[in-house]
Design a protein that fits this description.
The chain is an alpha/beta fold. It is built from ten helices and twelve strands.
Length: 252
């Protein structure tokens, strides 16, 4: 693995980026953090909401025990997100979908900032904070920031919950399967702003690498995935991805 402390694009990565047809991008919390999105993970069992650890208030068990408390927590999170905007990394990734003939964007983030930057058909492994799901019939409905949140399912009148993957839950049906299929077929895989600690998402670059893809990590620091990657660009996502924008402009 090649590692660089000051981000620069190697000749090999340059050629692969310019010639690739099938590209997969996996993004994590580090991308959204540059927009000011808090991760809420203080480490260990840090209390983050009225004395409750993150993995308690954001758990499937809490939905069953105290759904109003879960909604109070997620309403607070949505209020924080309303005033934030996509950053340079979000906008650059959105441009890539028109640069490559087959482009797949997979995100662990639930904030919707990729879509606001213009990305289409995003595979949301962990759901979206801007959707609700019925606790009984499982129908899904969008939440509009300027309108009151849906309190009950319009179809069956049962309570709704955030349509996000909570601790103790599995990923949405088909989401990982779609992402894994794209990973197995891609030529170039970017892993951007993720700690590579959360599975099964962290398994996607492993699938890509095993299938022969060139894997590039973009992160301010090393991760458990770094040794697997063909190149690791150390830096903030917005700064590093700007280098690829310049690369495209130089070849026009």
């Amino acid at each position: 693995m090649q590692s660089v402390t000051e981000p620069s694009i190697s000749d090999e990565l340059r050629q692969r980026y310019l010639s690739a047809s099938r590209v997969l991008v996996l993004t994590g919390a580090g991308v959204s953090a540059e927009s000011g999105v808090p991760t809420f993970r203080g480490g260990g069992n840090s209390s983050v909401w009225k004395g409750m650890p993150f993995d308690v208030i954001s758990s499937a068990r809490m939905v069953e025990r105290n759904l109003p408390a879960v909604w109070e927590w997620f309403d607070y999170r949505r209020d924080l997100l309303q005033g934030l905007s996509p950053n340079r990394a979000h906008h650059e990734i959105a441009k890539w979908q028109d640069h490559f003939s087959e482009f797949t964007l997979v995100t662990q983030n639930v904030d919707g900032l990729h879509q606001r930057a213009g990305s289409r058909d995003v595979i949301e492994l962990h759901g979206s904070i801007w959707r609700v799901r019925c606790t009984v019939c499982h129908a899904r409905f969008e939440i509009h920031p300027a309108q009151p949140r849906v309190e009950a399912c319009p179809d069956c009148s049962e309570p709704v919950r955030p349509d996000v993957v909570l601790f103790g839950e599995i990923l949405p049906a088909g989401a990982f399967e779609r992402a894994a299929a794209a990973a197995a077929e891609c030529e170039l895989c970017f892993v951007i702003g993720t700690s590579a600690l959360v599975y099964p998402a962290a398994g996607l670059p492993e699938i890509a690498h095993a299938a022969g893809a060139f894997v590039c990590e973009v992160n301010p620091e090393r991760t458990p995935l770094s040794d697997l990657c063909d190149v690791s660009l150390m830096g903030k996502a917005g700064e590093v991805l700007t280098l690829f924008s310049r690369l495209r402009s130089e070849t026009v």
